Amino acid sequence: MPTEIRLTVDGEVQQPRRFTFDDLMALDATYQIERVEQIDPRRRGAAIHLVGLLDAVVPKASARYLGLHASADDFHASIPLDAVREKAMLIYRLGDGPLPVADGGPTRFFIPEVAQCHTREVDECANVKFVDHIELTADKGFDNRPEDDQQHEALHAQ
Ligand SMILES: Nc1nc2c(c(=O)[nH]1)N[C@H]1C(S)=C(S)[C@@H](COP(=O)(O)O)O[C@H]1N2
Ligand SMILES: [Mo]
What we know:
- There is one protein chain.
- By secondary structure, the protein is of the alpha+beta class.
- Helix content is 17%, strand content 27%.
- Strands 2-1-10-5-6 form a five-stranded mixed β-sheet. Strands 3, 4, 7, 8 and 9 form a five-stranded antiparallel β-sheet that branches.
- It is globular and about 40 Å long.
- The chain starts with 6 loop residues before the first strand and ends with a helix.
- The mean pLDDT is 97.
- Residues 117, 124-125, 152 line the site of molybdenum atom.
């Protein structure tokens, strides 16, 4: 598992970008969430609002889906952008360093108060760990989240 942050945000955007830990830290303070614990006590660390990333890359009007890719374990989700735009975040820091791998770091997508696994298009399974590529697309993209209880149990047993 990678421990350093190299996050690419591209696709239907005007300014594709690659972010390091320092780049995320340098994004405007209005986008920074210091304590994710206050939003969900089961999570920890500091996060950047999804809007902070979007404002940096400037989505095109055609961008309707958000692809969340974790190349480390080949896990992918594609969810409607409008459903998460205002509330989702990327947890990326704990103390002075990147989020530990044990927490899904170095960068972990997080949607607060999300639907239970495979009950909705936007569900807990879309809280992609080790995310290294965020891709905006016009149509729904590749998605290999578990589709039923059996697949879900198999994934969690790994
Ligand atoms: N990269 C990656 N992210 C992932 C998964 C995975 O297998 N790989 N599992 C998903 C599923 S199915 C769930 S329910 C949540 C579980 O997150 P937690 O272990 O932090 O509770 O992570 C999601 N993110
Ligand atoms: Mo899940």
